[in-house]
Design brief:
Elements (H helix, E strand, L loop, with lengths): L1 E8 L2 E8 L4 E8 L2 H13 L10 H4 L3 E8 L2 E9 L8 H19 L11 H15 L2
Parallel strand pairs: 3-5
Antiparallel strand pairs: 1-2, 2-3, 4-5
Helix pairs in contact: 3-4
């Protein structure tokens, strides 16, 4: 993993990094409150995300969400995780859920098909790799 940008303050962690597998950029954002979420939005605007959808309560108060945007760093896959006190008991479950979406987005982006009848090793490998990585941020 190559870190492109790292930021940490009270209630907010942002890590933009590149993984060697599929040469993909991922931005992991973990926030604990509204103020931290607003700082995260300022950051994504700074790197070129123009979509105001992220400023809605639906996103700010979600347990977590995953998306893909064009930025000054190229295509970046974002994982937002709400780590507020009320959501902490569900954090691992939400991280696993968002990791599933991230893997699906990355594989689709790189043209890797999902085979309903197959073993889908690229999906399985990437799931473990990313979950272990995201769990440490």
């Amino acid at each position: 993993m190559k870190i492109i940008h790292k930021y940490k303050s009270k209630g907010l962690t942002i890590q933009l990094f590149q993984i060697p597998i599929y040469d993909s950029r991922i931005c992991f954002i973990k926030y604990e409150n509204g103020k931290a979420y607003q700082k995260a939005i300022e950051y994504i605007k700074k790197i070129g995300v123009q979509d105001e959808t992220y400023e809605t309560d639906e996103y700010q108060f979600a347990f977590g969400f995953t998306t893909k945007e064009k930025t000054k760093h190229g295509i970046v896959h974002f994982v937002f995780m709400n780590n507020c006190k009320e959501y902490k008991p569900y954090y691992s479950n939400t991280l696993a859920h968002e990791n599933f979406h991230l893997v699906n987005f990355l594989c689709k982006h790189h043209g890797i098909p999902f085979d309903a009848e197959g073993d889908n090793e690229p999906y399985a490998y990437l799931t473990g790799y990313l979950f272990q990585l995201l769990s440490t941020i």
